[in-house]
Design a protein that fits this description.
Blueprint lengths: L1 H15 L6 E3 L3 E3 L5 E4 L5 H15 L4 E4 L14 H17 L3 E4 L1 H4 L3 E3 L2 E3 L5 H10 L3 E4 L11 H10 L6
Parallel strand pairs: 1-4, 5-8
Antiparallel strand pairs: 2-3, 6-7
Length: about 170
Amino acid sequence: LGDVYKRQPYYKEILQAGIIDYLILGNHSMMDDHHQIIARFGQPTASNMYAYKDTAIAALNTNMFSIFAHPDYFMAAVPVIDRDVIKVSKCLIEKSISLGIPLEVNVAGLRNGKRRIGEIDRYIYPNKEFFKLAKKMGAQFTLGLDAHAPYQLNDDHANSCLLYTSPSPRD
């Protein structure tokens, strides 16, 4: 998050000047002052999970971000949804609701296929349990394709999988 604070004047300047319309927060890792990665948020440790929460909330509190991309990223390799996972999820969802920032349901995790996590094969994200909780709490959502190549804009497989991984209107 140090980079967010170091670049905050730049981000504010380009937002205020109208050079860009909005910023999207994608929280993947944490670096120290020497730009060395000290935490990878897709790794399932309690310290990474809480660091993810703290850095995401600090970034959201800058009021520079309009969308929170794959907010469930910290759950990518979590084998069991336990009390800590629920606690972190609720904190992130509550913050997004209080700031009016939509949570992105990210299709890239579907495009990359299922992986063995713990005892089950599942997509790394979107995490259905996270989004069911977010829906129950009243969060707003946006869909993100996370396309890194033009052909990924029309990915029928990932788009059809989304129907099976997202909470239904009845959830």
